[in-house]
From TrEMBL:
Pfam families: Lipocalin. Belongs to the calycin superfamily. Fatty-acid binding protein (FABP) family. This is Cytosolic fatty-acid binding proteins domain-containing protein. Residues 8-25 form the Cytosolic fatty-acid binding proteins domain. GO terms for molecular function: lipid binding. It comes from the Eukaryota. Keywords: Transport. The keyword Hydrolase does not apply. The keyword Signal does not apply.
Amino acid sequence: MSKPNYTGIYHMVSQENFEEYLAALDVNYALRKVVCILKPSKHIEHNLNSGEMKIKTVTTFRNFDMDFTLGQEFTEDLGPVDGRKCQTTVNWDGDKLVCEQRGEKEGRGWTHWLEGNLLHLEMRVQDVTAKQVFKKAE
């Protein structure tokens, strides 16, 4: 089975349970309210041959960059302001990208998968799951 190429620009079309997810991450109330009204886009560069990926989440509030190689653990900067970091590994699970994060919160990670022109993102921490759906730009 060939792996899908995630390269593209995707704009958020929906989200579920995101405030609860942020609360489980101990994000303060005011910041949760701000973050939940943002409509991020994801700019993804994916090299299928090398496994290198760049995921840039762009908002009017703040941008987040994540550069990694599939299957290789790296230190992820979770909170540039307060210095939170964790050890992160992203691997294939079939045609889905699955991220496991260690060191910040138990059971934290995410899964990305494509269905047509939709990019799905399921985020989890402990027993809380949130979902966002993005549509690929034409």
